[in-house]
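Hi there,

I know you've been waiting on this one. I reran it after we fixed the sequence typo, so this is the corrected version. Both the input and the resulting structure follow.
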Amino acid sequence: MNSESGCMMKTLIFNGSPRNNGGTATLIRELEKSLAGDVNVISSYKANISPCIDCRYCWTNDKCSIDDEMQKVYRLINEADNIIIASPIYFGEITGSFLGLMSRLQFYYVARKFRNTEMLSVKKRNGALILVDGGDVYADNAMSMGKSLLRKMKSEFIGSVYFSGTENVPENHTAVPEHILAEIKELSINLSKIPAAETDHERQARIYPIILSEYNPAWPQWFAEEKANLEQLIGNENIARISHFGSTSVPELTAKPTVDILLEIAETIDIEDLIASLPNEEYIYLRKEGNSLSEHDRVIFLKGYLSDGFADVWIGYT
């Protein structure tokens, strides 16, 4: 239990190994010993979960057409505080069985891409990887793939454990070196550090940190690149004017390193069509309804603000 929030910690572990007593299963059991709260383990080899068949049902519906155990997994992903991917490495990659299960994350991608909908609740999820191989000491591809899959599940990568050398131990007994057990213990401690629920003020301070920087000569170029990108996505015929405003538009001025862009459109433009034209994997969309029938909604798109952050696109009418 998280002592700060009083909530039961929920951990979801994906097991991509076919073996009951191999290195992956052994490390999962060791991790479970140190984790408090509710722990669910999903085995890609044992679960009744089919791979994605690209039927495109989810392009227009808010659920997957395949009625199997993945429906339960979607719920567990949404509720999880921790998501761990544990898998042996076969030919330099996470197992094919596990990748087949993970192909069902296409459901999340399609919702974001084509229906402008986020299927996962907004919360902090810790993510971690446990990778095991016989002794090739080559985990780069598997590590990269694991991190990518965690991102698809809106989970923030906080650490990994890599156990290489299982081919040197007896078939039915995996002896885990002490230093690997110590890493598993440390990982469990880090996974247990769930922050208390944020207040609105704390969340605003995290998402919009106040940072001042010396003038950057690249800011005008960033504006020019984003202007060209908006023109391509929206179409010049729908744009009255695009302007660089705010402190970064003033040469030599110390400023918050965010390029503010005013996108002016005609009254006749359908705002819903405009919103749909900007891919939501690039832009974070915020909207505030107008206070009267004559007042337009206030619309803003944030691009990259949480990580690389440099652009806010404000929508205005001409």
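Quick highlight: The chain has nine helices and eleven strands.

Best,
R. S.
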